[in-house]
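Hi everyone, sorry if this is the wrong subforum. Our group has a chain we'd like a structural model of before ordering constructs, and none of us has done structure prediction before. Sequence below.
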Amino acid sequence: MAIGFLRGVSRGLRAVLLLSLLAGCRSAVEKETVLLNADFEEFERWSQPAPAMLSTEKAHSGRYSYCVKQGDDFAGNYHTSLSDCPEPPTMMRLDGWTYLPNVPIGSTILVLEVHCHGRRPDVWKGINIDQVVKRYDKWEHFTKTYRMPDDLLPSDEIKLYVWCPERGAVKYFDDLKLVAWR
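Answer:
Right subforum, don't worry. Here is the predicted structure as tokens:
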């Protein structure tokens, strides 16, 4: 039906409509805010001055990756606030790469927390890495999109960390990216 509509429209008007559609797509992308883009070569926002969770044993890009050592249940965490967003987000997308050995790793959850300072219950989202990875001894890509509550504020804080309640074998993460939009 839309094609029939466009046949009756002049070539100049079709160009204007196409440019308008493209401009609309571009503005949607411009509203995304990158809250984290970590290849672990720089780590100023990570929780420790000399991060013990960085490893040079395996890396998807560069020299370093985020590592949860064998038997550990946590490694360092990332902190930021929503103040970098033009508007508090209602959506967030987390993606990155993980390397899991071909041995029992136990439950492994990449956790995204939003601390709301008692104003509302904190938000806790997680991606079960052990259920997403299909191949071992190789870097595997993962991505997860989350719907967030509508009442988040710029003062709310983001924490991102790996939690391994069953501990298990070593796990590596690299090229993590967290994007937020409304």
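For your construct planning: Residues 13-29 have pLDDT under 50 and may be disordered. The longest helix spans residues 11-30.
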